[in-house]
Amino acid sequence: MSYWLMxxxxxxxxxxxxxxxxxxxxxxxxxxxxxxxxxxxSMKKGDQAFFYHSSCKIPGITGIVExxxxxxxxxxxLGTPSWFCVDVKLIQKFSHIxxxxxxxxxxxxxxxxxxxxxxxxxxxxxDIKEWKVISRLLAQ
DNA sequence: GCCAACGTTGGC
DNA sequence: GCCAACGTTGGC
Length: 140
Known about the structure:
By secondary structure, the protein is of the alpha+beta class. It has one domain (3-139): ph1033 like fold. Helix content is 26%, strand content 36%. The protein has a 6-stranded mixed beta sheet with strand order 2-5-4-3-1-6. The mean pLDDT is 93. The structure holds a DNA duplex.
């Protein structure tokens, strides 16, 4: 089982949008970066991911989703499909956001992809140790 | 294949 | 709104 972090802009599609869907499942589409796409394609059913709000007032992790359908081509592509999506289901919506500032304070997370300078990938792998450190924050 | 120009992301 | 960082495009 692998762990991931997936970014979304809350004004476009935030965790509240997902929470309001009847089955709380959404295709994670619109990824237009080859590296991020390759990560999408390597996701397995049951993998979990942090739902991250970006480009907003308080960026940070707002919840946890789980992959319920592995990568399949996005609709409405001509010819050989280039872009793929997975379906994710909301597992947990946090009562409080874990802000980017919070994450930067945790030195166990210094190597986390999302915290590295210049990182812009919308889908990134999360190390199991990093996942646990962040989960521990939640338990507090 | 190189690289300049341009576009996008995303924190601040 | 600014700007650093990165990706993509396209001429050569």
